[in-house]
Each structure stands twice: as C-alpha cells, then as structure tokens.
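**Fold tokens**
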Amino acid sequence: MNGEQTPTYVYVYAVAAPAPRLPALLPGVHGVEDAPVTLLAPLDAAPGAPAFVTSRVPATHWSEDVLRTRFEDLAWLEGTARAHHHVVEVLAAHTTVLPLRIATLYRDDDRALAALREQRPAFAERLALFARHTEYGVKAYVAPDPPDPPGPGAPAPEAGTGTASPAPPSPGKAYLQARRAQHHAREDRYRQAGRAAERIAATAARYATRAVRHPAQTGPLGRGERGERGENVLNDAYLVPDDLADAFRTAVMETVRDLPGVRVEVTGPWAPYSFATLPVPPAPTGTAETPGPRP
C-alpha cells in the first residue's frame, strides 16, 4: 500500500484547524501502537482549511475481524483510548480540534483525503464553533446513604446511669422509626439534587454556548470504589468561551452552597468530545460501533 512492504491503514484522531506550531510539534508525538503522528491535507487545500491528524497502523492489527474481537478486550480498549486522547489533548493545547472516535480508519491516503474533502464544510463549521471554546463537565452527587439501622432482633444499647429517662421504644418500633427517618432523609437529598440540577442549568446557560446531558454514571465509576462520592445524579457537559471559564466555574459552584446534601464537581478543561458528533456520512464504517477501514 503506497509502496510499503507492510500493508497499513490510515488511523485518524481528529480534524484540526491549521496552526503555525503543528508541523514542528507533531513529529515528536506518538499515538496508538506508539505510531508517529502526522498531518494529512490535500495538496490543493486553501489556507486555513482543516486537516486530518493521522498515524499509519498495521492493517493486520486493525482489520474489521480483528477489531470486533479487540473491542471486547477492555485492557486493549483502555490503552487505545488513552493513546487516542493523548494525541487529541496535545493538539487541543495548540489549535482548535474536532475529536473523532477511536478506530476511525481508512485504507489509504486517497480514501482519507476523499472523506476530508467530502465533509470539509461540516468540519469547518464545527471548528468555527469550537474556536476559543473549551468543554467543562459538571457532575452532581447526592450524599451516600447512612448504614441501615440494626434489625428488630439486634441487641438494644445498654441503659445509661443517672437520671431516669423515658422507656425506649420496642426494638421493632425503633427499627421502623429509623427506616422512616432514613427514607425521609433520602427523599430530601433527591429534592435538593433536583433543585441543584435546575440551578446549574440556569446558571450555566449564562456562560455556555452549548450543553449536553449525559446519562448519570453508575457503579464504581460514579460512586467511587468505596462509594465515597455518593450517587451521581447529574452528568452534564458545557462548551464554554475561554474568557468566561473562571466565571463559569465559580458561578456553578456557588449554586449549591446552601444544599448540604448535594456535592458538585466541575471537571476540565477538555477537548470538545461531547460536541464533536457530525451527521453520519453514507455507508459509515471505521468507528467504535462499526470497526474497520473505509473501503
């Protein structure tokens, strides 16, 4: 392929707006399988036209059949995603980027360039939207539940000495009272979480130009390994102008100061992954959902 002894595919990380430092920067950057990273653009591209950021990867490692198996290997998937995102983050520090999904592949440069030309207007429009903007995440958590009360058959606490006190309720009644209090406390935390979500959305709208609501995270990813984070009830992403980023972060955190049952976390800055989806071209292949090179 292209005169190479070992057949390769073109792996595309992102679409990038041109920047003076990129040609000198990219030769020191390596991506998936430690492959060198380069820019790919048509020779007749106009100044300022977007380019693909690519690597050459062995065709035997990235064929459709191989990828169907590899996408079930979580260790491989994590390592590939890290390498892919590393390249995107390096780019994002120096220019505007449109991140593409992992395993976006083309059989050769000609096919990659044809796709670049075909989608150039959409790429240029999205890059213009992203210029001087950065993605920030906003996550809200409700406090973790306290431990369940002892069951009705649990031994009662020892009586203290001194002044007489009212007789304690029976074990069964005490258990029901504790469960009722736990239920009310949980309902109160969720009411606070709902108020927090409304406040965050209203506050963020004053700063962000775009917003995406992702599904809440579950399991250790959302709660932490020991459940210390509580339950994730909000997982939003916002595209924020760079000159408003500090004000955005401060305003979002201030929205929940009076809601002790809710904790908010602002993450970022990130490359605009949450806003990178484009209309799918005809007969798409080469994405995480449909692995394999484009014909």
Summary: The radius of gyration is 26 Å. The chain has two domains: 8-119, 135-155+167-272. The chain is about 35% helix and 20% strand.
